[in-house]
Amino acid sequence: MKKKDNKWILTIGILLLIAGATGVFFRQTVQSSTQENRVFAKEDHIKRDILVEGKNYQERVNIAAIGDILIHDTVFLDAATAEGYDFKPMFSHVKDTLTKPDILLANQETILGGMELGLSGYPTFNSPREVGDALIDAGVDIVSTANNHTLDKGEKGIQSSMGYLSEVGLPYVGSFKNPEDQQRLRILNHDGVNIAYLSYTYGTNGIPVPEGKDFLVNLIDKAAMKEEIHRAKDQADVVVMSIHWGNEYQRTPDNIQQELAHFIVNEGVDVVFGHHPHVLQPMEWIQTDDGRKAFVIYSLGNFLSGQMWDYKDIGGMVSLDIIKKITSDGTTIELANPEFSPTYVSSSGQRNYQVVPLEQAGKYGLEQAKSKYEEIMSHMTEPLKTN
Questions:
Q1: Pick the CATH number of 62-386 from 3.30.70, 2.30.40, 2.30.30, 3.60.21
Q2: Sorted alphabetically, which PANTHER family does this protein's record hold (predicted)?
Q3: Hey, is 290 helix, strand or coil?
Q4: Which of 174, 194, 211, 285 could form a disulfide with 236 if both were Cys (CB 3.0 to 4.6 A apart)?
């Protein structure tokens, strides 16, 4: 009887313990739930409408160009070293300026056929290949090669020059290796902005283009230009034309230049970089028939050459911004902030050639450099104010 009583007491005790534990668990759960509700529940939540709209994007790219790289024999003889040729010191005073733009074009007036073709100056040029090395070092991103000296050494010369440019990775435009190369648009991309570069020349100093090899140099032809401009416009945000035109040593554009400028911008060109006169000609805005605003600089003059006096030793760099805006309404392109930085080719007895900022040229032998700087800036920018 005593054993049964003990079993009964034990059973009741276990039940009481289970009941107590269950009660504690229940109270903790309720308290925990209450605590959670108290901490995290937001009774006074503010209701807000969430609007989902397309975001706006804007990219700004600065492009620039310099004028003729015209390597006379006095220039390459001055660049001679024990190992070859070094043109880099000639650009050292303006390198900081040249490396500022995002994309810089230079007009490579003379072919870079190198020693194997025989170096020569005026009237049929062939320059050391080290000229290209110096341009790359100074910040040049692409060279135009359609000019009146493209065929100075015939097909062999321009093919050799293009081969070298391909080897060092410096894009060229205006002369081409074959028909396929001619059809390949030169489109440079920077920060999502695609810029197509085209190049044409008025002629080749009477040297005939080899029959069936029109690809060696782009000659000015409105039908051909129109076709390429339209093709470039379909694939790029901005179309840039480097063009060899005008009269040598004339400081203002002639009627032919102005008419051709209006033709190409109305076909779709946005920026025109002019070359050939060997002196500076002004820049201006042109309002196109479709409402765009195109930029033209008629001549960038000589950037590096052996020519002196009568404005032939004054050149410069022009730059402007391309602003690409993407909104829910579409994509727009705006050109803005054209700037001109004039330069001077300093030398002493046809030695020690250096390209220097015109404003500082007094330290390099140019008399009345400050007044010359003011004259050049007025000459180049005045037409911008009337557009």
A1: 3.60.21
A2: CAPSULE BIOSYNTHESIS PROTEIN CAPA, POLYGLUTAMINE SYNTHESIS ACCESSORY PROTEIN RV0574C-RELATED
A3: coil
A4: 194
